[in-house]
Request: fold
Amino acid sequence: MGRRSRGRRLPQQQRPEGTEDGPEGGGKRGEAGWEGGYPEIVKENKLFEHYYQELKIVPEGEWDQFMGALREPLPATLRITGYKRYPEELAWHTNLSRKILRKSPQLEKFHQFLVSETESGNISRQEAVSMIPPLLLNVQPHHKILDMCAAPGSKTTQLIEMLHADMNVPFPEGFVIANDVDNKRCYLLVHQAKRLSSPCIMVVNHDASSIPRLLIDVDGRKEILFYDRILCDVPCSGDGTMRKNIDVWKKWTTLNSLQLHGLQLRIATRGAEQLAEGGRMVYSTCSLNPIEDEAVIASLLEKSEGALELADVSSELPGLKWMPGITQWKVMTKDGQWFTDWDDVPHSRHTQIRPTMFPPKDLEKLQAMHLERCLRILPHHQNTGGFFVAVLVKKSSMPWNKRQQKLQGKSSESRETTQLSPSDPTEGKPTDPSKLESQSITGTGDTEIIQTTENLENNGNKRDGVCGPPPSKKMKLFGFKEDPFVFIPEDDPLLPPIEKFYALDPSFPKMNLLTRTTEGKKRQLYMVSKELRNVLLNNSERMKVINTGIKVWCRNNSGEEFDCAFRLAQEGIYTLYPFINSRIITVSMEDVKTLLTQENPFFRKLSSETYSQAKDLAKGSIVLKYEPDSANPDALQCPIVMCGWRGKASIRTFVPKNERLHYLRMMGLEVSPEKKKEGAVLAGGSAGESAGGAGQPEDEVSEEQRAGAAGSPVSESGCDLDTEVGCDSDGAAGCDPLGAELPR
Reply:
């Protein structure tokens, strides 16, 4: 939502903190807007007011409150990572703007808490209205979900949380495929998703309006993948974000909406095509403009010929205040000229104004659409941003997908090749909207698609288990060239030592392990769910995958000196733990405090129970497990699982810094910045973030250096995927400012 506006903010956030406001926050820039770095902007736009007053989207008598709310800063909101519906004390908002949170000395501790907990995936700073679309999708753990325009990823993380509603199931049957057209923003999406450590998320890089159909293997035959849930949060003009994107005030014009309408309709149409019958698709924008909202929905319903219908969701989010969708609207040019009917539009305007922008003329057909079931959220009703949501349910196949199977002629095959393969040279480039519309409407039947695609795959020289980017001649790669995804054969010699060392349960799905290299030593082992494995293996020729899987093991440097060359990674420990039957040490709450606050504690500093478990273990990677004691209500009442290393005479943890801070906070220990500077608490934190970092074991420096350290997921080409990008915006990752380090 509001992607264009968000993109413009990035350079502002990259500016060093001290240069924004001067020594004491004074100067002209310090008073210029709430986000810092904006010039003074007068929050007035006569054309904006004239347009929306004419369309009557605001109830009579509420215009002044509406405009007054738009001129106020947007309150900071956050969502606690959880698997229940909001607002059951899992979503919170303050009446403080984000600038006040960042700059106020009195709130410094609270701000550090927000940054740290966001980075470790326990909270998400996300605008309140942005939380609504995933809730209305009504996701269940078995659902296959497509997020069409996913970056920066706040809604994607909500979807992942819903898949993992049952924490006792490490591999839900469902998955999320998160797509974005912008290659660089895909890495921001990866950063967001990685915080939740799920094996059920895949990030792909495609134009949403022509995202390829995917195939899956069902009992030995290939079938088209239809999604149970689709989130269609399209690029928009973003005039509902005026409270945080202040430059919208001076730049707003109806031209943005007129230019985006065609793209929004094509994306929504493509989503509807890939939705399963009985499935639910949520279309949303952060724009109040009916050209981007009701006009897109009305046009989509009309062309679906009854295959889609608007769902009545008025009772699904009690407490939410919203306005029903409107059924009549007009189109205005950027010069202020109004048109109420397509027939009135002069030929010279036909490239700018399209017939799909107007409400249907047939009143009976218009009434049957039930556009009043759309939700428009106005800023002054609940102190939020502006937003629009529509929930669509698919009753049958789209009319252009209902054709009978055709004879397989050469021309038919070539047409399907064009439609299905991302090798189309026009991908990522501007395309004639009318051509794209006609392409989606003239698509052929599903059976034909399956046959043709199988022919394409049979002609390729594809290696088993390797899901890499297609050859450059077939697909023009833009952005970073990704390493392949290579599934490890079940008879690979590296698996038996791992299975023996950790006494893995026979039910461990080793076929779902993958790596990112086809040559040389395998440095990192990742794991995906079996459903995502199915998707990867059957679609490598038509899909550009940016990232998938969670890291579960890392190779130790000189690892052959130990019984197992691979140590556990904290990122995937909660997924892996149910299958591990050896090298588990149960620790007390006092032991956890010691392990997290001391760099490399000797055995004598730990409890006798912990020592007795550790003394007979061989050197190498271990699991440290804390089980809550229900008889002691003052103790921490949630389990903790950490990766560690059993050294010669000591134990150390391999836990990232912010996760350490989180566990310590839960036990009532707050780490002050002063202590962190002294290195008293987090000296060992570097072990979780950089190889051979500060604070090696006193008695075995060389051994711990050989063991390496738990870090961010790194692709085999050396790209650090976890720290690629970050940002401090509602619905972006929790680095603050962009790319800056967290409080030291």
